[in-house]
Amino acid sequence: MYYNCLVNIPKNTGKISRNKRGKTTYIEYTYAREYLPEKKYNVARRTTIGKADPDHPGMMFPNPNFEKFFPDVEIPAEGTAAEPVNESRSSCIRIGAFSVVRRIIEDYKLAEHLKRWDDRGKGLLLDLTAYSVIAESNVAQHFPDYAYNHPLMTPQNKIYSDSTISRFIREIDDNDRVDFLNSWNATHDKNEKIYVSYDSTNKNCKAGDIEMAEYGHPKNDVGAPIINYSIAYNMTNEKPLLYESYPGSIVDVSQLKYMLEKIRGYGYEKIGFILDRGYFSKANIQFMDSCDYDFVMMVKGRASFVQSLIMEHMGEFESKRACSIKAYRTYGMTVKAKLYTDDDTDRYF
Question: Which residues belong to any copy of the Transposase IS4-like domain (predicted)?
Fold first, then answer.
C-alpha cells in the first residue's frame, strides 16, 4: 500500500538503495545487517519504503514502512500524486439507512463532543461510524466503495483513499478517546438513579506484533493472542457510558474494580450495576459494598451455595401462582442468605 502523495527520497543515509523491477523502481532501506558465520559475510536486511516517481526525480510515493523508519518526516496531504484519487460519485446515492444514522448522530450531538477535531476530522470519523453500521464492516479498503454511492459528512463530500483512512485511524490517540468520553458523560444527569450494565468480550488477533494482544482465556480458543474490550451502558435509556480495551491476559474478574472507579470518576453517584457471572468474586463484591453500590450479579447455577439454596426451598415455589413469572413462563422466588461464611450482609437470591 503506497500513499497517494510524494516525499523526498532520503539522502546521505548510506542505507538507501534502488531496486528496479519491470518499469517500477522501488526504494529500499537497509535496517540491519546479519553476519552469517557459515558463509563468513554480512547479509543486508532491507525493506521497501516507497516507489520512485518517474515524473519527479528524487521523489517517491511512501508506504507505511517509510513512516516507521523515518518518523520525523511529515507526510503531506494526499492528492499530490501523478494519479489523484478518483472523487467521482455515483449518479444514484443510497440515502435510506444513512438518514437514520445521521439522525441519531444529530440527536445525540456527537459532533459537539469532538471539540479538538476540525471539520475534516469530524466528518471522516462520523463517516467511518456510519460505514461500520450500514455496511457492517470496518475494512478500510472497502470504504471508498461505500463512499461512492452514499452521502458523506466530510466537507464537499470528499472521498478519502483507504491509505488516508488507515493513517487517520492510527493518529487517533488515547487523549482523543478520553476527551470524547469526558464530554459525553458530562451531558448526563448525575442525580438520576441508573443501573449500569457492564460486560466484556475478547477478539482473536492475528495482526502481528500488537502490544495489547496477549494470550489469555478466550471464549473461542483458536490458539491466537486476544484483545479484551468492554462496554458499560445505562439500562434505563440504553445509552452507552464508556468503553475500554485492555490486554488479553487480564481476566474479567480483575478488571471490574477499574471500571467502577472510572464510573465514579465521571461523577455518577446514584448507581447500581448489572454484571455477568465472569465478574463474580469475593473481592469484587466487597469493593462494591465499600462503595455502597447496589448490584445484580449472575452466579453459576451449579455453584454449591446456589444448589443448597434451591434444595432447601424445593417445593415452595415451583407451582405457586404467586411465584409465576409470566414473561418467561417459569416460577421463581427471592430468598435472603449470606453469600460467604464471613459475609456481614444479607443478600437476596
Answer: 208-338
